[in-house]
């Protein structure tokens, strides 16, 4: 008959200990859940038997000791500490232990989370608002990616790679997009100095009566953040390196 799909016991065990579900393991290896369950049966492997039967008091003591050295640690980090010590515990049990030994710390950590509140986005028409920003993740390679996106259509007006983050470089990329799509009604960027010339261009072109250039934190530049920066930056950087 057809040869069975190779799924080594150690690989399967490592995924299960990491908390990966049988369904996700099947997706990763391109097999059905039934195939994964069959391999587990062949290896006499049960999820419940892979984890340590540590008593609650003992687990609470270990978790409390970790938190005493690292008070702001979340449950994922604690899982990592425990796994490194050879103590394999279900995520649910670790969360319960943290709640028992450090309930106040969990509440404080929850209140300290600085989540960004998103408002409902509304732009009346194309070219009403462009969002511009830069990506500096490749700055060590002397590559800075500059991009601009139309808020209404999500059209990528420009996406370029440069060796610097000067205002003249950003303006050149912006003007190339303007020559193609026209001058936007307004532009939104962060308060970085690289956007000064774009702001000057918008004010000199549109006037000072309306907020033709809006500034704010990059975290709130929602349309640009929603752009697939990683994929686009990779493509632009790759073509840049081939020049």
TrEMBL record:
Which top-level group of life is the source organism from? Answer: Eukaryota
The protein's matches in InterPro entries, at most eight in alphabetical order, are given as:
Integrase_cat-core, Integrase_dom_put, RNaseH-like_sf, RNaseH_sf
Q: Where is the Integrase catalytic domain?
A: 120-194
An example GO BP is: DNA integration
One Pfam match, given by its short name, reads rva_4
Q: Name one GO molecular function term.
A: nucleic acid binding
- Protein name as annotated: Integrase catalytic domain-containing protein
């Amino acid at each position: 008959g057809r040869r069975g799909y190779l799924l080594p016991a150690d690989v399967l065990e490592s995924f299960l200990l990491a908390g990966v579900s049988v369904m996700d393991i099947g997706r990763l290896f391109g097999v059905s859940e039934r195939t994964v369950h069959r391999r587990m049966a062949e290896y006499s492997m049960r999820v419940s038997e892979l984890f340590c039967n540590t008593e609650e008091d003992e687990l609470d003591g270990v978790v409390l000791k970790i938190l005493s050295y690292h008070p702001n640690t979340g449950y994922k980090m604690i899982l990592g500490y425990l796994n490194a010590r050879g103590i394999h515990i279900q995520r649910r049990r670790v969360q319960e232990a943290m709640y028992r030994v450090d309930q106040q710390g969990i509440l404080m950590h929850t209140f300290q989370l600085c989540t960004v509140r998103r408002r409902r986005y509304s732009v009346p028409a194309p070219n009403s608002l462009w969002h511009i920003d830069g990506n500096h993740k490749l700055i060590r390679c002397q590559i800075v990616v500059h991009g601009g996106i139309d808020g209404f259509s999500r059209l990528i007006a420009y996406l370029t790679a440069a060796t610097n983050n000067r205002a003249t470089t950003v303006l050149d990329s912006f003007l190339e997009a303007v020559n193609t799509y026209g001058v936007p009604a307004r532009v939104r960027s962060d308060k970085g100095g690289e956007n000064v010339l774009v702001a000057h261009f918008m004010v000199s072109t549109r006037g000072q009566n309306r907020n033709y250039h809006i500034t704010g934190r990059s975290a709130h530049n929602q349309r640009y953040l929603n752009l697939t920066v990683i994929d686009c930056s990779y493509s632009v950087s790759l073509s840049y390196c081939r020049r």
